[in-house]
Amino acid sequence: xxxxxxxxxxxxxxxxxxxxxxxxxxxxxxxxxxxxxxxxxxxxxxxxxxxxxxxxxxxxxxxxxxxxxxxxxxxxxxxxxxxxxxxxxxxxxxxxxxxxxxxxxxxxxxxxxxxxxxxxxxxxxxxxxxxxxxxxxxxxxxxxxxxxxxxxxxxxxxxxxxxxxxxxxxxxxxxxxxxxxxxxxxxxxxxxxxxxxxxxxxxxxxxxxxxxxxx
Length: 215
Description:
Blueprint: E1 5-6, E2 10-12, E3 17-18, E4 23-26, E5 38-40, E6 45-46, E7 51-53, E8 57-58, E9 63-64, E10 69-70, E11 75-76, E12 81-82, E13 87-88, E14 93-94, E15 99-100, E16 105-106, E17 110-111, E18 116-117, E19 122-123, E20 143-144, E21 149-150, E22 155-156, E23 161-162, E24 167-168, E25 173-174, E26 182-185, E27 190-194
Parallel strand pairs: 1-4, 2-5, 3-6, 4-7, 5-8, 7-10, 8-11, 9-12, 10-13, 11-14, 12-15, 13-16, 14-17, 15-18, 17-20, 18-21, 19-22, 20-23, 21-24, 22-25, 24-26
Antiparallel strand pairs: 26-27
């Protein structure tokens, strides 16, 4: 017996597995059922109690953990994983091969290809919440370049740019742009070295920390 709900104007690719409690194509409050299209690529695995709003486009080989929320106007590439309890608020663009770990929050964020987000990474997009009438003019999330690595519990402020292959240490608060292939840590996050200087804790050898990418 089907124990999930699919609204109108939803296209789901072949070989997709959907667990109990999933909702796909839920219209935002200002839209009616079926007004926005929702596209889910083939070979997708959507785990229990995930909610995907209408107006979302997702590529092939996508996976969620349980209890993921994906709001409207999200565009997600191929081979992306979003683990349990993460929230993608509106207007994110997620590149191919990204990994978004448990408990992350993104809004108006652009991730390049092969970006890794550790658990509970938080992106903010409002530099002065609840103040001016025209606050929406200033809303903008971060942009993260290809193959960047963001450690667990990192907070990234609005309008920030993080370059490709950069590494942000766990628990950091990023308040300024970080250049490509640099390592930044702390609150506020400061560049301490180049990625080419990183060493494995176990082996002591120089290596790039994500997917054996060459520096």
